[in-house]
Amino acid sequence: MTNINKIIIVGIAIIALALGAYYFVPNSEVSLSNKTPVIMPTAELSFLSLEAQSNEEGSVTITVLPRIAEGADRWEFAITLDTHSVELSQDIAAISVLRDDTAGTYAPLVWEGNPPGGHHREGTLVFAPITPLPQTITLDIRDGADEKARTFRWALRAAK
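Request: output the structure for the sequence above.
Response:
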């Protein structure tokens, strides 16, 4: 092996060691812009213990499960609609309203679920949280055929 070959091998080894040290040795001055940040929650949300409710009046069965936590930035209601006789073509957000025990009414922010159509739909109806926490809430969902409201009511303070 000639001196030139030895110099090349030593040079490659030095470069490999330098690159390895740069990538594997912690250094506070090395940029972290290519690393994914880890977000640690500051506080765990405590969800209220609320039961699912079903209403089988008429030709559509509606089941609602509230997912509400104090301090959350949104209140969610998991909703399932089932039928064997009519098309589920309603805009769920447009036919729903949330009421509190002080006569306040609240329109949903968004429906995150199946689009209109078919005989089975499910999704999440999202509302802004009500503060302060009311004693009770009522979710009314109007039946598109006869405009009769299906009513679901929960006691929130008792669920804490």
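The two ends are 80 Å apart (CA to CA).
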